[in-house]
Amino acid sequence: MESKLNLNEELVKKSREAAKHIAEDMQRFIDQNTTVTVERTVCRLLGIDGVDEEGVPLPNIIVDNLKRGNGLSMGAALFIGNAVLNTGLMPQEIAVKVSNGELDLMKLPMKDSFEIKLCINKIAESTVKIIKKNMEKRDNYLKQFGDKEGPYLYVIVATGNIYEDITQAVAAAKQGADVIAVIRTTGQSLLDYVPYGATTEGFGGTYATQENFRLMREALDKVGEELHRYIRLCNYCSGLCMPEIAAMGALERLDVMLNDALYGILFRDINMKRTMIDQFFSRVINGFAGVIINTGEDNYLTTADAIEEAHTVLASQFINEQFALLAGLPEEQMGLGHAFEMNPEVKDAFLLELSQAQMAREIFPKAPLKYMPPTKFMTGNIFRGHVQDALFNMVTILTHQKIHLLGMLTEAIHTPFMSDRALSIENARYIFNTMEHLGDEITFKKGGIIERRADEVLNKASDLLEQIEKIGLFSTIEKGIFAGVKRPLDGGKGLEGVVEKHKEYFNPFIGLMLKKQKGDLELN
Questions:
Q1: I need a labelling partner for 337 at 20 to 30 A (CA). Which of 77, 146, 318, 457 fits?
Q2: Secretion signal: which residues (predicted)?
């Protein structure tokens, strides 16, 4: 992409190299450790699902059994495979017996390691085939209906009741929405288990469960067939169950997942060691399943000033890009985040916003960037709010953003009504239509405000990445450099779920899924 901003390409390259070193340094830590969530995810991918009579998920029961017996460091797959060879049962049947107290995985005689891995790999490959078929179904829909060239119109539903969510999602799709995001119920990111079944009692959102995913996917496919458009489904792959939700999404054909390396640490006080390990496996799964991830840099600007701290957004985008690449997730699935969050009272704020968005587009040309609407400075004045959203829509179309989360004129008042969404969709479609090629027609003044702003942000981001490279990402977070939020290395929620890997550790899915990304895997 030809730069309209005359960006210093050497500085971009230097920043990317620094981010690569930061991510590789962290990856060495990640590769040495696992977590209870990673192992529960392995259980789910091996076919274990459901809850006991008290509502405890069977994957949690299996992992608790292994943790009590000090076996988790070798990986759940090894002990499940051993149980299959010992009993002749499948993983789901084994989980039920463990739940009933009829079986202890740690007390079974260990079979030959090679035989165990051969056994588990066959089961793992069957799951991989299911996910691959989901991808083929998505591809077939897109071939049949075509895909949208311009920005995807992304709206949220958040009633707490999956059936009411479906009603609202179908209405939004008929009004023109391209992506439906089902907001999670308040606090689910802090649950160290995944709720089960269809739910109707969420607060501020709806529980992320596999059955809820299935129900919404089914409804969106049905309305999509009526409209001859593929409607993408989004949910939240973050918090203490990050990779588990990624697995559920892959099994139910979600298309987009909120999946950031730092969000849970900064904004939910989840332990940084736990989050770093979990984000890797979640991104391996999302990369394999063809899911676009949305990173959370926009959240920095809700706690820090968007003008002063813009460089931290760019630095985090560089880092998220490198973490994603290490997990086999291609650039075309990296919905790196940013936001239209500058104070509208600031003179020339629109120019600064335009500069930031254009810079992101030029530095990450293949990424389906996710652009977030104004929220911090929305006042409840719906008329002014609609104008702020219109300016946000203009920046999107001028700079070729891809995933456009629609602003709501009632932001700061209430959760959107269907009528609010209809007005927001109408606003965006009007601007996108009348300005479709305006970005291709304009250039920016050499040495002007827009160009100088981009240069300033890039230089600060490069300096910050150089600093992070020297002290490491953990120390950077401890110092509160991102979003002005400090977190201690051994503080936060979930640290007790981190386990150092044994030399015999085994997880079949990382190898299988990364091979697929490289094109080495043949699954018929």
A1: 146
A2: none
What is the rounded end-to-end Cα distance, in angstroms, of the chain?
Answer: 38
Distance, in Å, from the CA atom of 195 to the CA atom of 217, rounded to the nearest integer, reads 18
Q: Tell me which of 141, 263, 371, 505 is the catalytic residue.
A: 263
Q: Could you give the 3-state DSSP secondary structure of residue 207?
A: coil
In single-letter form, the type of residue at position 369 comes to L
């479609």: which residue's tokens? Answer: 429
Examine the residue annotation and report whether 221 is marked as an active-site residue of this protein: no
CA 9 to CA 286: how far, in whole Å? 30
pLDDT tens, 311-359?
A: 999 999 999 999 999 999 999 999 999 999 999 999 999 999 999 999 9
The yes-or-no verdict on residue 198 having pLDDT over 70 is: yes
Structure tokens at 518: 């490289």
Q: Which of 298, 389, 420, 455 is catalytic?
A: 298
Contact 209, 185 (CB under 8 A): no
State how far Cα 470 lies from the chain centre.
27
61: closest CA among 157, 158, 194? 194
Q: Are 328 and 287 in contact (CB under 8 A)?
A: yes
Query: pLDDT at position 523, please?
Result: 46
Buried b vs exposed e over 84-104: b needs ≥16 C-beta within 10 Å? Answer: bbeeeeebebbbbebbeeebe
> How confident is the model over 228-252, as pLDDT tens digits?
999 999 999 989 999 999 999 999 9
Q: Which residue has the tokens 């079944």?
A: 197
User: Domain limits of the chain?
Assistant: 33-124
CA 238 to CA 262: how far, in whole Å? 10
370 is catalytic: yes
Active site residue 14: no
Going by DSSP bridges, is the β-strand pair 232-236/179-182 parallel, antiparallel, or unpaired?
parallel
